Amino acid sequence: xxxxxxxxxxxxxxxxxxxxxxxxxxxxxxxxxxxxxxxxxxxxxxxxxxxxxxxxxxxxxxxxxxxxxxxxxxxxxxxxxxxxxxxxxxxxxxxxxxxxxxxxxxxxxxxxxxxxxxxxxxxxxxxxxxxxxxxxxxxxxxxxxxxxxxxxxxxxxxxxxxxxxxxxxxxxxxxxxxxxxxx
Length: 183
What we know:
It comes from Planococcus notacanthi. InterPro entries: Knr4/Smi1-like_dom, Knr4/Smi1-like_sf. It holds the Pfam family SMI1_KNR4. The protein is an alpha+beta fold. 32% of the residues lie in helices and 26% in strands. The chain contains seven helices and nine strands. The protein has helices at residues 3-12, 42-52, 58-66, 92-98, 123-127, 150-159, 173-179, and strands spanning 19-23, 29-36, 70-76, 82-84, 87-89, 108-114, 117-122, 134-138, 142-145. Strands 1, 2, 3, 4, 5, 6, 7, 8 and 9 form a nine-stranded antiparallel sheet that branches. It is globular, with a radius of gyration of 17 Å.
């Protein structure tokens, strides 16, 4: 499934108020909303690529050409207001505005935020044609490889309903019961 199909699937399962319920991995339920921007102009993307002296990865570039930024699974408070959270994917203008945050981590392009962390592209990985170019960056631990590209990250984020799937432990059924003390 490509970027467009993933985003269209997210937008198909909202109600008339552009809301949907999410069930989190801890069993809690929350209301969320998802929104997309109109497409970016090809010239704006080309100018940005010229500015950073790198071509954006194909899957991320196609996202910008379809939806110039998005909010996926943004929380809605009990009072019905925007509660933040979820995944914010930057527009071309927001890419420009957020570049200065990466001065501490040269070679990374912030493309969004999630859980108070940046989602970033390693420009070196893209240049070296490494398909695992996506990183999570926080100020305490620095860049951490997600070993994913944008398309795969977005698909997993949507399927996991916005959960931090990259932090899930990897074990089999037998070791799960042992590790969680349910033997």
